[in-house]
Amino acid sequence: MTSIKTKTHLHAGGRLVIPAAYRKALGLKPGDDVVLVLEEHEVRLVAPRQAVKHAQMLVRQYVSKDRTLADELIQDRRQEVQRDRKKRGPTASRS
Prior knowledge:
Layout: H1 20-26, E1 35-39, E2 42-46, H2 48-60, H3 69-88
Antiparallel strand pairs: 1-2
């Protein structure tokens, strides 16, 4: 993405207008949530979709593509449920 710079005004209550070109480039619509990142005296506004993509990219640096963390988590939870059931022993059936 190319760099676009503009000047805007900070309004009462800390409100800031995001120019239409920026909203369009980020795919933002009224009512959308955004992520604000404060880094070294700068604020970056990130669309949640981009924040998720960035997080996924960071995870992929440490997890190979042939692993699915979601599937592993589901498997772990199922095993945990089985262990809990074994600890509790047989339960009376409900009528």
